[in-house]
Amino acid sequence: MSLTAHQAPTVIGEPEVVEDNRATTQLVEDNRATTQLVEDNRATTHVAQGSALTEQPAWLALKDAAIQLQSLQHKDGSLADPADLPAARAHVTTITAAIRTLAPLFPHDAAYLAASIVDFERWATAGFGVPDFLDSLQAFQPQRERVDGLAHLVVFPMYTQNGSRSRLVEAVLCEVIWPEFIGELETTYTNGLFLSLRFLDFTPGYDTNSAVLFPETVAMREIPAFTWGAIFQDREAARFRRVVRTAAEITKLDLPEGAQRMLSDQELTEKTFVMWDIIHDRTHMRGDLPFDPFMIKQRMPYFLYSLEELRCDLTAFRECVNIEQRLSAAAALSDAETEMRDHARLVQYAVLFDRIFRFAITGSRVRNYDGLGGQLLFAWLHQRGVLHWTDTALAFDWDDVPSAVISLADAIDRLYWESIDRPKVAHWLAAYELVRAVVTPHPASQWARGLSDDVLSGPPSGYTDAVLDDEFPLSMFFEALEKKMRPVITSTEGIRGTDA
Question: Which of 10, 32, 43, 50 has its CA 20 to 30 A from that of 359?
């Protein structure tokens, strides 16, 4: 079947750090060149894991010193009180000594850990002004060695998204999640800057809702070209399992067999989230895009972020439907292909239930773009008759769900394709109409009533100012669900894979 322009599939984009396609081939070659080195290093790393990295005295000393140093820092990372200079220097001495002790357990990170010591010592010698860890950040290249189980020691002054907004010294022990079938998947959905991680231990900045490790959060003197971005899939999976388990009980939802397996198997769910995120992440730079999809340093109505994040999730959903269908029709499959086919079905459940049960009711109602995306998906499926809330029980017509979800992806793709020919604010208005056709705006909304001529003829900032903090309030369904789910949503803060 031929496709019209707006129907062209929004398949596979680049990760949330921009990857230059021209460099992809060289990156693959570099990855191959490091594989043997990583395998050689794994024996040393696994010895450390067998001795429990988290129980290493040097790690415990480093973690404690970082926490003590945090208490002396201003929000920009500098020393808050000059009187604390001797204490701060003592803490840095402990941190650098611990890094030296631990470094042999992480030979693959030797250059980074050496540079980290230099950055810490330079910071201390200069009197603990605003920290600059650009040199060690550029030496840290974990995306080059994506080997399942490979451990990393990460220490930076940084903020943690959905956690601390202050650039405090944070330390993390983590390990890579990279099963064989993901390596096979990545040969098609190339995403050389994406890294999937599992927490081992961390300082308080990650005892929060933060589930990402992004280089742009590090304190540094200038902004380089970012070369990787990491997601802690164990936290994503653990939150999903705890929230969906409770939501299914509250809504009396009869979960399909695959979703039930995810609730009882943390490792299975982690792999599912890796597959989801590797496709989601690279979608941000692929497709008919009328704007910078990252919307970096742009002040825009928050519902545009809702549509972009939802577009990426629904692309992952669509691609996993295609993968499942293609591999199910194959005459013979390798072990990796079998696992890929099975996880493709699980990704569909993950996108659906995470969006509806967690995203829609997590966080405040102040410009909650992920929350709106969950509301939009729920209402779209309900209005198309594949989701039912009847007799206080939730049910899905599973055979019809994929086409209904993909139809929402098509609607967003069409909006993007058409908006390439529109002025910016006309795109904003068209996007609002798509959302309001599905989710009801607040009765006091200026956008819903129609913006005044003064706003329409003025600068884009006037449009953004007119958007209410909670432009699209929760429906009665979600308002009631949120009250019942509030304790379990709160309980997922700082969750680890072993907690779910």
Answer: 10
Alpha helices per DSSP H over 198-265: 233-251, 257-264
Q: Are 66 and 169 contacting, i.e. CB atoms less than 8 angstroms apart?
A: yes
CATH of the domain at 198: 3.30.540
| 167-176 pLDDT per residue, tens | 999 999 999 9
Beta bridge partners of 194: 229
Which pLDDT belongs to residue 24?
40
**Distance from C-alpha of 286 to C-alpha of 282, rounded to nearest angstrom:** 7
Closest CA to 343 of 268, 426, 431: 268
Q: What angle do CA 36, 39, 41 make, to 5 degrees?
A: 110
**CB-CB contact of 219 with 186 (8 Å):** no
Cβ burial, residue 91 (10 Å; 0-12/13-18/19+): buried
What tens digit of pLDDT does each residue of 296-311 get?
Answer: 556 889 999 999 999 9
Structure tokens at 472: 């699209």
Nearest to 144 by CA among 27, 46, 55: 27
Q: How many domains does the chain have?
A: 2
Q: Buried (b) or exposed (e) across 298-329, using 16+ Cβ within 10 A?
A: eebbbbbbbbbbbbbbbbbbbbbbebbeebee
CB neighbours (10 Å) of residue 421?
9
**Residue 302 amino acid letter:** Y
Same domain for 321 and 189:
no
Residue 382 pLDDT exceeds 60: yes
| 3-class DSSP state of 192 | coil
- Report yes or no on 9 lying in a domain: no
Q: Which tokens hold the place of 334?
A: 């390798």
- Domain residues for the domain of 406 are 247-499
- From CA 245, how far away is CA 326, in angstroms rounded? 30
Considering the domain architecture, whether residues 474 and 332 belong to the same structural domain is answered as yes
- What is the DSSP secondary-structure string of 370-426? HHHHHHHHHHHHHHTTSEEEETTEEEE-TTTHHHHHHHHHHHHHHHHHHHTTS-HHH
pLDDT tens for 471-487 read 999 999 999 999 999 99
